[in-house]
Amino acid sequence: MNLYEAIYNTEKGQPLCFTTARTLYEQADLLTLGQLAQKARFDLNPEPLVTYAIDRNINYTNICTSGCLFCAFWRAGAHPEAYVLDDRALAKKLEETKALGGTHILFQGGLHPDLDLEWHESRIRLIRSFGLELHGYSPPEIKFLADRFGLTIEQVLGRFIKAGLSSIPGGGAEILVDRVRRIISPRKVTSKEWLDVMAAAHRLGLKTSATMMFGHVETTTEQLTHLFRLRRLQDDTGGFTAFIPWPYQPCRQTIQGRPTGATAYLRMVAIARLVLDNIPHVQASWVTQGADIGQAALFFGADDLGSTMIEENVVAAAGVSHKLSEKEMVRLIEKAGFQAGQRDNIHRPVQTAGHSESHSEE
């Protein structure tokens, strides 16, 4: 297929096949790709609304048995910087989040071998006792706990849902191709296991997000394979609410590579919007790219600016730290010509934007 045929078929609104997607991704100029993605965005979400969330990323532990080569956050149990968050520290973070207008907590941690299910259930109940939704426990954590305690994925999810789990983040997806995973995260879940956890969560009524960490050892074909595997699962379950692509951030102690530039990032946002025509929302990653590129992504198919991130630890561990208050996020959205609207963990509207002056953590 040549580029003109690929553009013509896409403009007609036909679902992209792998060949069309590859042709567009590799051959279309950036602005053409952006125009196609923006049309797809408004076909799916006609209102000029860009959403954002107020939440806090709480990592309950950095102790992890996985030791992924891309992660600067994890520590071995005997490391002097290793920690497990206690109830008092967690409660303080929850109080601060609630006071700053937060609606939910993104709750994730390392694969800690000594924390039992009751420990996790008690933390879920504590978070919910503050009136906050819990968007937590990515597929690698769920699979790790199931294996650790001899349970099925459904049994772990069932217990967590009973304790108050609201939705599941898409962490741990990286690239859903096992060749890549054997290089960068050999002790973590396989691509099938990640997808199986999400499928089980959707069957049990949980909504989830999906992610991609790109720009390390994967090929273009593997990036597109990742997207099409997500689309197939979404066709089956309809449980994904949003897709978040974020570029790998290399640092001295992780696998080396060249940081992904703005052009490559925007191309990924655009092709994701075109391929994932059945996932409602695409989120811009200002946390890794900065505010200006996050704003630019709103013209390449993204319709969500993510979270104010009252707290973020994993990306920051790689030496990348961007901060935005709610006021600044609303300004970015409105300056780009869109209407800003606060959402919760599963993209339900919360309230009119701009009700507070700042949500940056002191």
In short:
The protein is built from 14 helices and 11 strands. Helix 5 (117-129) packs parallel to helix 7 (153-163) and helix 9 (191-203) runs parallel beside helix 10.
Q: What is the CATH class name?
A: Alpha Beta
Could you say how many structural domains there are in total?
Answer: 1
Q: What's the CATH architecture?
A: Alpha-Beta Barrel
Average of pLDDT: 90
Distance between the termini: 54 Å
Number of H- or I-type helical stretches: 14
Oligomer: single chain
Structure overview:
The protein has 362 residues and is of the alpha/beta class. The protein has one domain: TIM Barrel. The protein contains 14 helices and 11 strands. The chain has helices at 3-11, 18-27, 30-44, 87-99, 117-129, 139-148, 153-163, 178-184, 191-203, 220-237, 262-275, 286-289, 291-296, 326-335, and strands at residues 49-53, 55-59, 104-108, 133-136, 167-168, 207-214, 240-247, 281-282, 304-307, 339-343, 349-352. Helix 3 (30-44) packs parallel to helix 11. The termini are far apart.
Compile the SSE list and pairings.
Layout: H1 3-11, H2 18-27, H3 30-44, E1 49-53, E2 55-59, H4 87-99, E3 104-108, H5 117-129, E4 133-136, H6 139-148, H7 153-163, E5 167-168, H8 178-184, H9 191-203, E6 207-214, H10 220-237, E7 240-247, H11 262-275, E8 281-282, H12 286-289, H13 291-296, E9 304-307, H14 326-335, E10 339-343, E11 349-352
Parallel strand pairs: 1-9, 1-10, 2-3, 3-4, 5-6, 6-7, 7-8
Antiparallel strand pairs: 10-11
From the structure above, extract its key features.
TIM Barrel, four-stranded mixed beta sheet, four-stranded parallel beta sheet, 14 helices, globular, disordered C terminus
